[in-house]
């Protein structure tokens, strides 16, 4: 046999072997499709003042005097249908400013598990699980330094509470390792099924 015929024979046998292996491999393959349904979780909180609301008709107090203690108990509940969450809250007193506002803020007994941080928010220092509630504060003491300049003065103490999911979120921490911010995240209102008409 000459070299050309031998080379052609070897190449032909090699090609037959490749086709045979390829055909064999085709018998050992399979494919399948799967469909996954992903349902997004949500965070859902409720802000109430159970004691204040029951003691004060129409959410108003009148005839308040300097150094008087007022029961005010903003309570944040992470609802059962919610994911575990970090919570923050903010106090706004729109009718007061400057020294008067600062004096009144000093008279609010904010719970020690809250730390003032970014953008004047107070940050709760633990993750709050569904069904758990936390109090922001329980009392407001009217400044003893308030005099006749404040007679018939009306003001509101407004509280806003916000939550963000705890899973896959890392809040900012200060030098004492306290939660002090949410990395610039702005909270949006959850409009779940109970809000639909």
Task: Provide a descriptive summary of the structure in words.
There is one protein chain. This protein has 197 residues and is of the alpha+beta class. The protein has a single domain, classed as Sandwich (Immunoglobulin-like). The protein has three helices and twelve strands, in the order αβαβββαββββββββ. A four-stranded antiparallel β-sheet has the order 6-7-4-10, with no helix packed on it. A three-stranded antiparallel β-sheet has the order 1-3-8, with no helix packed on it. The relative contact order is 0.19. The model has no long low-confidence stretch (mean pLDDT 83).
Overall body shape: elongated
What is the overall number of helices?
3
Reported for the largest beta sheet, the result is: 4 strands, antiparallel
Structural class category:
alpha+beta
Query: How many angstroms does the end-to-end distance come to?
Result: 92 Å
CATH topology-level fold name:
Immunoglobulin-like
Q: Helix coverage percent of residues?
A: 10-25%
CATH architecture: Sandwich
Can you tell me the number of structural domains?
A: 1
Q: Compute the average pLDDT.
A: 83
The H/E string reads: HEHEEEHEEEEEEEE
- State the total count of DSSP E strands: 12
Radius of gyration (Å): 33 Å
**Low-pLDDT runs:** none
